């Protein structure tokens, strides 16, 4: 008769005090008393025969777990002491929970709580709870609308800022806040609940002139083809200006001065002017990218041309009600202009600014064109061409000191230093290659992780200052990495103070106080799954030593959180550009891990598409 394994183990435990274990291939020997002093643990069940298991060829009990993590657990059972500085708290807590070592789990939880404060790090600057207090909701909302907003505002989809204001878009309503030095952030406007989900939001907190008055602000939201625009009065009440339709999906929504601009890659531009109170749609060729320069709207189009519209002179043609769309430049190879960045140098003469435009194409080419103010009639001249990307360029940024481009191969970044003479870009020595790195960012295909418009990686910041990328590696995470856009070095890491997932983010500079010498400060605003807004002081972070980008271990740990069986795609949406379904995309976390492995071994090489 064969004796069951469980009874053999029970007899062995009763017949001797020494227990031999084989954990993941490593032998351990300890006493029965050591293993069983914690009641109702894995070991007490194992040695009592309640759990059947295997034995190796020497008769030792085999446990298929990590032996390196079992060592500190066994030491704790022996000494009842814990040395947290020498261990990974989170990994050990997982093992302690498996073995049912309750006293160890409690100690590790305490270590984790001591390490992570609910008040955040020194960079944590503020917390706006989910909206919903009755005093903050307009009285004209219906009872069902009011109760639904009070009960659960849902996750934050988009955060945008202008001057000392921010607008926070939830699924079906938008909330505006303003900050004052004495009182801090105050909720001043909540829109009525809409019948559709918000995909875009735009804020203008500094309306100059016009019939609206100097103190009025404007906020607009869009979903599909529809746009709603409100004006916000000084007392916080809002009035609906109108509902407009672009008749095609709205891909971008923003203000240029008092003008609200909506564009679509299908080739449509919509403009609303605060002075004339007139909405106008204009057909152009399919639009892939855009940027603004003063009162000019610059469009990069599918036919390889760059066009401009002076929206301040709206409307230019009252007779036929057309915007004046003028071709500024045509790419030599007529590739689609997929990314665009305009830099206006300081005025060097009475004739105006030196205009510099960097653009990227569908073939991966990066070009810089320049136009001297005294040679406007001849158009911009080609300054420099780079052919280092082999996938479509999705973002580009030309600033005072750097040229930065991002392509569709897992957000691969190439950067150059820019040489200037008297403020103008110079050919001596020209644009010098600086670095190459990736901003790996995996997103949900079903859209549950947030809104694409709310998770743009950047770069963020003024063009005469150091700019940053914001990296959210996986969708369901409470952690963001802030990295210098010029070289990829990590500025800081921020983690949600309440443990909630980050669903959107935005970097914005708020104006300084009225005190002499006060300067604007840069903040990172993160929107969360519970509807809250958390603020982080990036000005202080930039003054502290930079650390370097996420390590391979950190990236792989985040990738482990991603379900490898599900399809994920990287966030390829440019901050001021559109990309289409023809853009190559990674399909799974496994693919991203392989590309990460390849990137780590080819840091200095050109970007290659697979």
UniProtKB/TrEMBL annotation:
Q: Report TM segments.
A: none
Q: Which SUPFAM superfamilies match?
A: POZ domain, WD40 repeat-like
Q: Does this entry carry the keyword Protein biosynthesis?
A: no
User: Where is each BTB domain found?
Assistant: 17-86
Keyword Cell membrane in annotation: yes
Gene Ontology CC: plasma membrane
Q: Which InterPro entries match?
A: BTB/POZ_dom, SHKBP1/KCTD3, SHKBP1_KCTD3_BTB_POZ, SKP1/BTB/POZ_sf, T1-type_BTB, WD40/YVTN_repeat-like_dom_sf, WD40_repeat_dom_sf, WD40_rpt
| Alphabetized UniProt keyword annotations | Cell membrane, Membrane, Phosphoprotein, Repeat, WD repeat
Localization recorded for this chain is:
Cell membrane
Q: How is the quaternary structure described?
A: Interacts with HCN3.
Family as reported in the entry's similarity comment: Belongs to the KCTD3 family.
Q: What does this protein do?
A: Accessory subunit of potassium/sodium hyperpolarization-activated cyclic nucleotide-gated channel 3 (HCN3) up-regulating its cell-surface expression and current density without affecting its voltage dependence and kinetics.
- What is the recorded name of this protein? BTB/POZ domain-containing protein KCTD3
Please spell out the taxonomic lineage of the organism that makes this protein.
Eukaryota, Metazoa, Chordata, Craniata, Vertebrata
Question: Its gene?
Answer: SHKBP1
């Amino acid at each position: 008769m064969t004796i069951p394994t469980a009874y053999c183990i029970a007899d062995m435990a009763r017949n001797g005090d020494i227990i031999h274990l084989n954990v993941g291939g490593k032998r351990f020997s300890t006493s029965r008393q050591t293993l069983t002093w914690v009641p109702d643990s894995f070991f007490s069940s194992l040695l009592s025969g309640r759990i059947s298991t295997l034995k190796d060829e020497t008769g030792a009990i085999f446990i298929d777990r990590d032996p390196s993590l079992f060592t500190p657990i066994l030491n704790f059972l022996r000494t009842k002491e814990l040395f947290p500085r020498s261990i990974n708290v989170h990994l050990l807590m997982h093992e302690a929970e498996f073995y049912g070592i309750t006293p160890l789990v409690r100690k590790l939880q305490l270590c984790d709580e001591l390490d992570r404060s609910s008040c955040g790090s020194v960079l944590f600057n503020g917390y706006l709870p989910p909206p919903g207090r009755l005093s903050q909701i307009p009285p004209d909302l219906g009872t069902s609308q009011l109760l639904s907003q009070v009960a659960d505002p849902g996750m934050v989809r988009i955060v945008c800022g202008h001057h000392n204001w921010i607008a926070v878009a939830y699924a079906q309503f938008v909330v505006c806040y303003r900050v004052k030095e004495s009182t801090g952030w105050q909720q001043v406007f909540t829109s009525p609940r809409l019948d559709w989900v918000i995909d875009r939001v735009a804020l203008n907190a500094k309306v100059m002139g016009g019939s609206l008055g100097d103190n009025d602000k404007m906020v607009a939201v869009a979903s599909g083809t529809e746009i709603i625009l409100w004006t916000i009065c000084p007392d916080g009440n809002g009035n609906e200006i109108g509902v407009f339709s672009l008749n095609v999906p709205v891909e971008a929504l923003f203000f240029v001065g008092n003008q609200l601009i909506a564009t679509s890659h299908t080739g449509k531009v919509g403009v609303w002017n605060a002075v004339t109170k007139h909405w106008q749609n204009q057909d152009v060729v399919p639009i892939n990218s855009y940027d603004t320069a003063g009162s000019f709207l610059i469009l990069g189009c599918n036919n390889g041309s760059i066009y401009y519209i002076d929206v301040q002179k709206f409307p230019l043609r009252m007779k036929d009600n057309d915007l004046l769309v003028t071709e500024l430049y045509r790419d030599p190879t007529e590739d689609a202009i997929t990314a665009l960045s305009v830099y206006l140098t300081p005025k060097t003469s009475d004739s105006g600014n030196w205009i510099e435009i960097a653009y990227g194409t569908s073939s991966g080419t990066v070009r810089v064109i320049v136009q001297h103010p005294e040679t406007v009639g001849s158009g911009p001249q080609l300054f420099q061409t780079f052919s280092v990307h082999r996938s479509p360029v999705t973002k580009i940024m030309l600033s005072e000191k750097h040229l930065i481009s991002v392509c569709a191969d897992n957000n691969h970044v190439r950067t150059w230093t820019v040489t200037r003479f008297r403020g103008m870009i110079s050919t001596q020595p020209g644009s010098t290659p600086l670095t190459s790195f990736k901003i790996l960012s995996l997103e949900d295909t079903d859209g549950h992780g947030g809104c694409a418009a709310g998770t743009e990686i950047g770069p963020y910041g003024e063009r005469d200052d150091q700019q940053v990328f914001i990296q959210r590696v996986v969708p369901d995470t409470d952690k963001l990495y802030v990295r210098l856009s010029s070289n990829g070095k990590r500025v800081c890491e921020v983690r949600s103070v309440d443990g909630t997932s980050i669903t959107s983010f935005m970097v914005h500079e708020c104006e300084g106080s009225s005190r002499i010498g006060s300067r604007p400060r840069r903040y990172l605003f993160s929107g969360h799954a519970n509807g809250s807004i958390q603020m982080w002081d990036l000005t202080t972070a930039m003054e502290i030593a930079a650390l370097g980008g996420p390590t391979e271990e950190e990236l792989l740990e985040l990738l482990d959180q991603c379900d490898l069986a599900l399809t994920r795609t990287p966030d390829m949406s440019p901050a001021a550009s559109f990309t289409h379904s023809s853009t190559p995309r990674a399909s799974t976390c496994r693919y991203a891990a392989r590309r990460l492995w390849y990137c780590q071994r080819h840091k200095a090489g050109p970007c290659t598409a697979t």
